[in-house]
Design a protein that fits this description.
Number of helices: 10
CATH architecture of the largest domain: Orthogonal Bundle
Largest sheet: none
Strand content: under 5%
Helix content: 55-70%
Radius of gyration: 17 Å
Shape: globular
Order of helices and strands: HHHHHHHHHH
Distance between the termini: 44 Å
Structural class: mainly alpha
Number of domains: 2
CATH topology of the largest domain: Hypothetical protein af1432
Length: 212
């Protein structure tokens, strides 16, 4: 957690009130560590931030992207349908007190809302980096991808299997319908084909299960 908190502080303006920055960062980490989370955890946050850091030069405002990563699943309740909106509103409420410029606050909130669709407009460099980082798990090796899908299923344990399969299939269909899952050329070259193969394989399994 210490490394993540250091990363959080580094994303804020140098003049951010130190005590408030630490308290806000710890509150965010507590959100990411809620017991009902199995995939959308501090582990996921750390992976997203590492991709952003590695490819920060691709963004127009890398710190806005980093802050959006912190907030993009800050509100995560599998029983509600407005997690991205609620997370964006949380960012809008908290960041001004930390000295974040209003234009950057607005950009962070926009980026958080974008994670509902993962479909940035052409030339949206910040959106491309955030959504690519958020979806990088889709290009994992098979055993890691299977662990990811199992973790997501645990988050939706309250949903009966047929309903979960239908809902998950709809999510995968939407992703596969996108022109590209990944937008930064180096990441698309590395991840696109593997991710689409993983999604297609999972979708086939969901449909096979529904047919039984």
């Amino acid at each position: 957690m210490g490394d993540l908190l250091t990363s959080w502080r580094a994303s804020l303006p140098p003049a951010a009130p130190s005590e408030l920055a630490t308290k806000t960062g710890n509150r965010l980490l507590a959100r990411w560590a809620e017991p009902h989370r199995h995939y959308h955890t501090t582990g996921h946050l750390g992976v997203v931030l590492s991709v952003i850091d590695e490819h920060a030069g691709q963004a127009a405002d890398a710190d806005a992207v980093r802050l959006a990563a912190w907030y993009h699943d800050a509100v995560y309740d599998p029983k509600r349908v407005d997690n991205e909106e609620a997370s964006a509103v949380l960012a809008e409420a908290e960041l001004p007190a930390l000295g974040v410029d209003p234009a950057r606050v607005a950009e962070v909130a926009r980026l958080v809302r974008l994670t509902a669709s993962h479909d940035p407009a052409p030339g949206d460099r910040n959106g491309e980096l955030l959504t690519d980082a958020d979806l990088c798990v889709l290009a994992s090796p098979p055993e890691i991808y299977q662990a990811y899908t199992a973790a997501v299923r645990r988050e939706y344990a309250h949903v009966p299997d047929p309903l979960f399969a239908a809902g998950r299939a709809a999510v995968l269909d939407n992703l596969l319908s996108l022109p590209f899952l990944f937008h930064i050329p180096v990441l698309r070259d590395r991840w696109e084909d593997v991710a689409r193969a993983n999604l297609t394989r999972e979708l086939r399994g969901l449909r096979d299960t529904a047919a039984i």
